[in-house]
Amino acid sequence: MKNIQDLAIGICLSPLNSASSIYICINFRSKEQQQNNPMSHRPTIKAVLFDLDGTLVDTEALSDKAMVYVLKKYLGETWAQQFAQDNYRLPWELKQQLLGLRGSDWGPIVINYAVTHWKLPRHDCPTVRELWSAWEVQLNSFCSQVQACPGAINLVNELFALQIPLAIATSSRLASVAQKRKNHEQIFSKMACIVTGDHAAVKNGKPAPDIYLEAARQLGVHPSECLVVEDALTGVQSGKAAGCAVVAVPDARFTAQEKQVFAAIANVVLESLEHFDGAQFGLEIKMPQAIDNELQ
């Protein structure tokens, strides 16, 4: 062990959420390996796997609004109106715990928060299944308002032009994804496969590696040759646990200190997809903002 120069242990349990599973990834390289392998810090990417919500399409604000509308039934109109001035955004301390999770995982978090912070009597709470289903119906009704995230269309088009296989790996269920894609065929049509949170192979949601392992399998590309693009910490952890390289594009509401958690796990942390530079991954793509930053 005396030649080990680089030992990294990634524990895939976010301090920002209450997911109970822990996934540990240990990666070590000897000094000799680092010297003899010029690609040790630059993986060769043969496929790109995208998260959907908050990464390719900006559903997060509408997701919050849908949640407020659903909870209004239990907490009342007066309670709901307090969120109107901020476009019905959920408290950030709650929202950051939900990012990237499946409904079966975020449901208990929302219910417990409502009981603790909004004083909803436990006996009046919906079940997780009731909350999840009602929220999906409400969000689907907003889907005509969903916009693409900055840089998403251009990046997908650039990768597609290079004949890089693309996939979506989302915690959303299949029926919900069908609604979200209606106005975004220019993104979805470029995808070789779409793996949803209710796919039979996805036994465990993010941060478990299941969904990215399945996406890589469907593309026929080894996970180590896949690049994951994610906005949520649980998704970043999922991609790393699967053995992929990861680009993180965190929500702008994360503090600089919180973004350091992303930086400790992901290969790269970007402000937006407009800043993507593929050179470090062997991809001949440099998005406009990355070029501007280089020239400054």
**N-to-C order of helices and strands:** EEHEEHHHHHEHEHHEHEHEHEH
Low-confidence stretches: 1-22, 24-40
Overall average pLDDT: 87
> For the report, how would you describe the main beta sheet?
6 strands, parallel
Biggest sheet, spatial arrangement of strands: 7-6-3-8-9-10
What portion of residues belong to β-strands?
Answer: 5-15%
Number of strands: 10
What shape does the CA trace take? Answer: globular
* Helical content (DSSP H or I, runs of 4+): 40-55%
- The computed structural class is alpha/beta
If helices are DSSP runs of H or I spanning 4 or more residues, what is the number of helices? 13
Radius of gyration (CA) equals: 20 Å
The rounded distance between the terminal residues' Cα atoms is: 43 Å
Task: Describe this protein's structure.
By secondary structure, the chain is of the alpha/beta class. Helices cover 40% and strands 14% of the residues. The protein is built from 13 helices and 10 strands. It has helices spanning 31-36, 60-75, 77-81, 92-98, 103-117, 128-141, 152-161, 174-180, 185-188, 210-219, 233-241, 256-263, 288-295; strands at 4-11, 24-30, 47-50, 57-58, 147-148, 166-169, 193-195, 226-230, 245-248, 268-269. Strands 7-6-3-8-9-10 form a 6-stranded parallel sheet. A two-stranded antiparallel sheet has the order 1-2. A two-stranded antiparallel ribbon has the order 4-5. Strand 9 (245-248), helix 12 and strand 10 form a beta-alpha-beta unit. Helix 2 crosses helix 6. The longest helix is centred in the N-terminal third of the chain and has 16 residues, at 60-75. The chain is globular. The protein starts with a strand and ends with a helix.
